[in-house]
């Protein structure tokens, strides 16, 4: 499997597992390469609990872990 195929498969998995997010790759020096942006804004109580509208990580694997932790935060709030 090539790197491009792996990335596409990971994006497909993220899209099906976390459908409330838009995923994109950015090539900006000094910033994370992979980003997830929520389609719907969060409520103030969700932000106060640690949820974010945008997550950025250096790899798709790290982004997937961040999204899973994010889901745990919202689950605790019964989102």
List strands and helices in order, with pairings.
Blueprint: H1 3-17, E1 21-25, E2 34-38, H2 44-48, E3 54-57, H3 60-76
Antiparallel strand pairs: 1-2, 2-3
Tell me the radius of gyration: 13 Å
Mean pLDDT: 92
What's the helix-strand series? HEEHEH
Please tally the β strands and state the result: 3
Biggest β-sheet description: 3 strands, antiparallel
- Read across the widest sheet, the strand sequence of neighbours is 1-2-3
Low-confidence stretches: none
Specify the number of helices: 3
Describe this structure in words.
Helices cover 47% and strands 18% of the residues. The protein has 79 residues and is of the alpha+beta class. The chain has one domain (3-76). Strands 1-2-3 form a three-stranded antiparallel sheet, covered by helices on one side. Strand 1 and strand 2 form a beta hairpin.
């Amino acid at each position: 499997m090539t790197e491009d195929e792996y990335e596409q498969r990971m994006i497909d998995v993220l899209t099906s597992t976390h459908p409330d997010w838009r995923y994109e790759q950015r090539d900006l020096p000094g910033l994370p390469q992979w980003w997830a942006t929520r389609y719907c804004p969060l409520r103030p109580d969700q932000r106060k609990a640690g949820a974010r509208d945008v997550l950025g990580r250096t790899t798709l694997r790290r982004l997937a872990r961040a999204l899973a932790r994010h889901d745990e935060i919202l689950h605790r709030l019964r989102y």
